[in-house]
Amino acid sequence: MLNLYEVIQLENQIEKIAEENQGEIPDHMLKALVETSVSVPMQLENMAKYIHNLDLKIDMAKTEETRIYEARKRAENHIAKIKEYLTPYIAKHGKQEFGLISLSIRKSQRVDIEDGADIDKKYMKIIPESYRIDKDLIKKDLKVGIKIDGAELNDYDNLQIKVKI
Predict the structure, then answer these.
(1) How many domains does the chain have?
(2) Domain span at residue 133?
(3) φ, ψ (nearest 5 deg) of residue 55
């Protein structure tokens, strides 16, 4: 009967090899380990259980990645909304300082695309098998007065929060 100790021992061997090789397991070392591990049916079962254990770790990592991504997006959305409400006040009243924190406005310009289908192919970056709008090129041409259907250059106020450390 297989015991947990044997599975952990195999996992430790593989982890040690990976650690000694900057996180990678050289093919020849993995092949040798697998060959020695599968010489006995019980060791083959250990290898299969180790693979199953890694699959479970992958599933847990994916779940955690999703949870972290969603938490980050919620925080980013909260920041965006709060800045959206604070920006008009700071724009009207000017820079505000509170001890270690200061709030100010930085002017910026951004290209807003109404409909990507209207953009001339000249303003597309070629990515294998697809096109992507090159906003930097569009912005440069809009600044010199070239009219581009489907794009316009707009000014924005961006709230800057600085913390003095």
Answers:
(1) 2
(2) 95-163
(3) -60, -40
Residue recorded with tokens 């709030």? 103
pLDDT over 70 at 80, yes or no: yes
148 and 67 part of one domain:
no
Q: Are 83 and 47 within one domain?
A: yes
Instruction: Tell me the pLDDT tens digit for each residue of 14-36.
Output: 888 888 888 888 888 877 877 77
Mean pLDDT of the chain: 84
Strands 101-113 vs 96-98: parallel, antiparallel or unpaired: antiparallel
Among 93, 114, 145, the domain boundary falls at 93
The position carrying tokens 């599975």 is 7
Which DSSP state fits 3?
A: -
DSSP class of residue 49 equals H
